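re the bet — no i am not wrong, look at it urself. input seq straight from the record:
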Amino acid sequence: MYEGALQEVIDALGTLPGIGPRSAQRIAFHLLDAPVEDVNRLADALRELKEKAKFCEVCFNVSTEDRCAICRDPRRDHSYLCVVEESKDVMAIERTREFRGLYHVLGGTISPIDGRGPGDLHIRELFQRLQDPAITEVILATDPTVDGEATATYLTRQLSPTGVTVSRLASGLPVGGDLEYADEVTLGRAFDGRRVVSQAAPVQ
């Protein structure tokens, strides 16, 4: 245990995902040795993040305005709605330049182990958006993990009666991997080869 402020920084860094005790200690000592200007710039960036960043009122992507840049873009194809777990997944898909539709960020996955159920995600808002007749296909782009697959299966069952086509990203994404770390080619092929899991009912 170190004294005072140094230990407080180590403890605070240790609460971040993916940062263990040794990494937290290494980062804390790096900050201690860094020029004060660099540390102040980091502190200002973190403060600005909490003050200015928000979630889009439509799709729940991270934004600095009430509606994110994608939802505001009139050139996007409103017939496709891609459902992802987190905002980082939106950025991963956007890098492929293969998808020009809209997004819906769930804010996580269904995970009984973590005590997270459907009511903890933005699923109700998803169904509200489906009242827009322009949407003809929902693409489920949750991670190919146990929780991601469980969430996709749940959404498929719930979306089937709505009459919209429901598809799932195809092979190309490694099982157990995250969209965030997939390369552009892999994600692009996954979009091209997506499979339909629920077909829209024909219009009478």
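see?? The mean pLDDT is 91. told u. also The two ends are 71 Å apart (CA to CA). so pay up
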